[in-house]
Each structure stands twice: as structure tokens, then as C-alpha cells.
Amino acid sequence: MSTRFLIVRTLRALLSLVLVVTFVFLMLRLAGDPIKILLPEDTPASVVEQYRARWGMDAPIYVQYIRYVASVLHGDFGTSFRDGRPALQVVTERIPATLMLGFAGLTVALIVGLPAGIAAAVMRNSIVDRSVISLAVVGHSVPTFFFGILLIMLFSMSLRWLPSSGSATLAHLVMPALTIGLWNAATLARFTRASMLDVLSQAYMKTALANGLPSSWRVLRYALPNAALPIVTMLGLIVGQLLSGAVIVETVFAWPGIGRLTVTAVAAREVAVVQTIVFISALTMVMANLLVDLIYGWLDPRIGSKTGGISR
Predict the structure, then answer these.
(1) What is the pTM of this model?
(2) Mean pLDDT for each 10-residue chunk of the chain (312 residues)?
(3) In 3D, which of 242, 254, 247, 248 has the Cα closest to residue 285?
(4) CA separation for the pair 241, 228 (Å, rounded)
(5) What is the dihedral of CA 291, 296, 302, 303, to 10 degrees?
């Protein structure tokens, strides 16, 4: 893989990160004065101005932005209005819970979605194929918060098998992981099926069938590796969403991760905390997409030849 390819992809990732962080920075300040929301309505104007000066909100937006960028480059993401701790500390202490939930959800998605998509493609137009397509459509159409509530009603309220909220034990992880994992499994199954069908229709696969190669060998040795490109792309998006976008699921199950912190921070207008969450979430998405780009270029050298960026 050439140096030019790596540099172009890295610069594109950094530009995406800067644009996202800048957009959120501007929107948080244009949406209203967080100091007025933080303080009671009858607070004297002089006190409001003192707070605004204390938190650097009295300067023009472009000055605040320059200060923010300079601070971030030195590892300072600001301070939480509420408890006075560094925003980075407030956010990073929630990361392990989100990572645990994301990893469990990804495991469920891979175990369910990948085999289902392969089976549907191999047994095209059979009852298995139709069942997988139907379940995938239904699974992807049901909102995650509604599916989570259904799980709570079944496993917590009716059967009393699992706790409905919290994170004290591994049993608390089951329903949030199923909610995230099965929703993403529906997407993964559809992409896997489409990619596998495209590969199975190629001439070399028909030649392998004519030569009498076993079906399992043809699928695992020839079809699956060649169908990996779209699947890898989708996996990159899923990983980014799992780690940065579990807001609804964490709120439904009171899971103490970044998603739930986002809701409370936005409601309290915790500017520094929200900016830090967005920065880490955007960085996660950017790194996931950059990794997908690099894997994509490694798996298919033709992409590099088209962009002039890859050599093997």
C-alpha cells in the first residue's frame, strides 16, 4: 500500500473530524446561552456576566473557537459546569460501559447476521431465503427503543428472567446487547445476502459447480472472500454506530455509557461535555471508516489502481 494512499485517506479523515467538531461547536453556541440555562431565572445580570467571563463565554465565537482548538491540542477539553471536573474525565469514565455494550452487540450481529445472509444467498428463493429477508425487513423496521421495550415486557415483567435496567451484572447486559445486535444483524444479513448473490452468479463460481466442488468448499473458499468488500464496509459503519450511537438503547435500559451521558449533558447544556462526546464519537467513526478504507484497498488492488494510490 503506497504512502500517497495512506496520506490522502488520513487527511480526509482529519478533515471530516475537524468539520464535525466545528459544526457542533457553532451549533451549541448558536442554540442559546448555556449560562442562562445553568443559573436560576432571577439571577442578577452582573452574576450572569461573571459566570460568562469565568467560563470564557463572553468572548466572540471565533475567539472561543480558537481557544477551544488550542486547548484540545494540549489535551484540555474544558470543564463540566455541574461538578467542576474535566470534561474528558467525565466522558472517559463512561467509555468502558459503552465498549462492553458495543462489543456484545457486535458479537450478536456477527453470529446472527452473517450466517443468515450466507444461508439466504446459497438457498436463494427457498423458504430459508424468504424467512431471512422477511425477518431482516421487520428487524430493521422496528425502532430500537420499541424493540427494547418489548424485551423488557417479555423477559423482565412477564417471565422475570432478566433485570430491566442497570449494569450491575452480566444479566443486565443481555437485553441491551440483543436490542443493538439484532437490529444490526438485520442490516448485515441483507448486505451479506446481496454481496453473496453477486459473487455466486459469477462465471468462476459456475465453473466450480460444474467441476463438482462441494457446496461448502465453494462458499467458504471462493464466494465468501470475494464477497467480503461490501461486508467489511458495512461492518465498519456498524462498529462506528455501536460505539458512538447507542443513545436510545442506553437510555431505555439505563445503561451508564456515553449514550446516556449524552442525553443528560444535552439537557443540562453541558457544553464542554457534549463537545467532548462529539469529538470522541466523531474520532471513533473517522477511525472506523479509515480502517475500512485501508482494508478495502488491501483486499481489492483495483481500487488503488483507479486512484493511483495503492501498490502491492
Answers:
(1) 0.77
(2) 75 86 85 71 77 79 89 88 86 90 91 91 89 87 87 91 87 92 89 87 78 76 78 76 73 87 83 88 82 73 53 39
(3) 242
(4) 20
(5) -50
